[in-house]
Amino acid sequence: MIYQIATRDDAENINNMRNHLDVRQYLHSPICHTLKNCTEWIENIYHSSSSERIAIYTDPPETETLSYNPFVGLFRIDEIDALNNTCYVGLDINPSQQGKGYASIIYKHMLNELFELRNMRIIYLEVLSHNETAIHIYKKLGFMECGRFPRKIVRFGREIDSCVMYIDRKMLIQNE
Ligand SMILES: CC(C)(COP(=O)(O)OP(=O)(O)OC[C@H]1O[C@@H](n2cnc3c(N)ncnc32)[C@H](O)[C@@H]1OP(=O)(O)O)[C@@H](O)C(=O)NCCC(=O)NCCS
To answer: What is the pLDDT of residues 30-88, one digit of tens each?
Structure first.
């Protein structure tokens, strides 16, 4: 798997993924963006000290049939707090690459990097309560729910809770 800080070159892949209904229905902000908006957004984050976006691609193809590496997804790190060593994370997987085990692989890689190399103490995330697949993965990784924003999001004419989950370094080691 190739992990690279997202730049404007990744914007088209990212925008197509985020505008796909299979992804958009689980985002806190479901607004469809133009490629121009998305490129500006990625460039702003590129220069931010409190957020990062990491574009993930499969390894270079071994066969001649593919001349490009398929785009797997986008990992986000937000609210990086260097004083308290905490941050928020999230991950969206490209619809064509879902169900292949990539989310679990990427989370294990990124949690290891954040805890071991970047000395994070606690990592948080927010997930909509109807996102059963994502919640299944987070619990399996060792995340625990620590609160909710009741009825935070209105989607499909329904009010949906936003669950806050967290993992600390000790919990990750216990789950290995
Ligand atoms: C949620 C998401 C990140 C998962 O990525 P993925 O690479 O498809 O997930 P994986 O293949 O690693 O794992 C899927 C797991 O969910 C399980 N699963 C599938 N459908 C499920 C369901 N309806 N309920 C519970 N678990 C489910 C699978 O059995 C598998 O679990 P296992 O590893 O124990 O067998 C991806 O589907 C996605 O990006 N969705 C749209 C955007 C999104 O939801 N982002 C997260 C916002 S918090």
So the answer is: 888 899 999 999 999 999 999 999 999 998 776 667 667 899 999 999 999 999 999 99
Return the ligand 1 atom nearest residue 26 CA: 44
By residue range, what is the domain housing residue 170? 2-174
Cβ of 17 less than 6 Å from ligand 1: no
Rounded CA-CA distance 112/97 in Å is 22
Three-state secondary-structure class, residue 29: coil
Q: Whose CA is nearest to atom 13 of ligand 1?
A: 101
Q: What is the CATH number of the domain that holds 140?
A: 3.40.630.30
When divided into structural domains, the chain yields a total of 1
* Cross-strand bridge partners of residue 122: 86, 168
